[in-house]
From TrEMBL:
Name of the featured protein: Dihydroorotate dehydrogenase
Subcellular location: Membrane
Membrane topology recorded in Swiss-Prot or TrEMBL: Multi-pass membrane protein
InterPro entries in the cross-refs: SLC13A/DASS (IPR001898)
Keyword Protein transport: no
Organism (species): Psychroflexus planctonicus
This protein's UniProt keywords: Membrane, Transmembrane, Transmembrane helix
TM region positions: 29-46, 58-89, 101-121, 147-180, 192-211, 231-254, 295-310, 316-335, 347-367, 379-400, 421-444, 464-488
Coiled-coil portions: none
Pfam families listed in its UniProt record: Na_sulph_symp
Amino acid sequence: MPDSRSYSLKLLVKLNKKIYKRINWQSRITLFVLSLLIGFAGVYFLKDDSFTDPQTNVMFILFFAIALWVTEAIPPFAVGILIIGFLVFSMGYQEAEDVKQYVNTWSDSVIWLFLGGFFLAEGMKKTKLDAALLKVTVPKLGNQSKYILLGLMMITGVLSMLMSNTATTAMMIATIAPILTQFGKNAPITKSLLIGIPTAAAIGGMGTIIGSAPNAIAVGALEGVGISISFIEWMIIGIPVSLLLILIFWKALLMKYKFKAKRLSLDFLTNEQTKIDDTDEDGESETEVNKTQQRIMLVVLVITLIFWLSSQWTGIPVAAVSGIPIVGLTMLGIIDADDVRQLPWDTLMLVAGGLALGLAVQQYGLADYFISLVAFENINIFLLYLVFGLITVILSNIMSNTATATIMIPISISLIQMNQLGAPSVMVFIIALSASCALLLPVSTPPNAIAFSTGMLEQKEFRYGGILLGILGPILVILFVLATAPLIR
């Protein structure tokens, strides 16, 4: 799922024309040239005299890519393609055999795992299984305002573990639109819902490998150093910490916004208007077709999840399990060619580019070189965890959290291995999960942009959750990862 500021702004443009502000092509060219200069400057000032040509090339593309991700002169996914193209071009004439590994990131197991998740999410959306599950669960939340808020946030978080957090947020906000209209933009319940739902969507992505792109980057990087993380092993850490953060943020919203209305009705969810029962030439109603498709989708979803969760016992790789939704949903007519074209391929491009850059940075010793410039020997490991967690949040607020993970994870792995501080999996988990805690600005994440586009929130209202989770999030992540890590490895 694209997580860049430019994508957030694009959503704001689509949903609220009044806040549209076009970035013209001249400014993009200026930012591109500036990024290019930063790439050359980084090499000029930080290059060591002993560097070989391949090391110099990797250092250049590292700084150039970072600058492009920060300035967003070109979309983040285009940076991913540029990274692979540059590595193939610059290294190809020197090390023809090794250059294949950068292209092979397109077929990495993480890419296939993500692709399987995309097919599931698209299938749920097309069959409206997500909305059907929502209409079954939401009315069971009762009529207490605070518990309805908690329930909606938890449902959002859980759905975001399997679906795009942007699509989940859009669906949830559309579902609660009658509540927002009834109480108005100044009501505490309105503010709480519009801030709580996008926050829960972003945090919910911590729960599974496919829930957030930084998670996939983390799994791919760990596989590169011989550490395999299964789907259920990630969930053992990711789901509890994400649900705990949602619960804490719910309590924080109740403290900030005092609800005047203690009770809230959700009858509008069950009192839908009667739909016209269109029938096809075979006499089969559209409603019956939709129900059948939903049942098929539910079966495929359950089977896929079962095999993902049991992969460490069945021995079937999670990437291979992704073939179930990819083949099953297309064979059974749930997803067609037009739907496949609409999948977020740009996310896969960004992840593949990130994997290639991380591979090159580690392979040519740049991570070790940068670490050697700073004296880490006497730094307490727990302080180091906190520093990396907070830096990840800060960087993720100003650029793509996938890009942040791409930069931070290879450096952290080399740091842990160089100083013999134990298995690098703990630090990698901390960085990947902390990347989902960047929620300071309306454009920090697409879910925030969707909520802001309603016109019922001011920019300053995101600071409360952004600062709270930006500080508390990494701390809780560190504590929980340290507590549960022995269960994993």
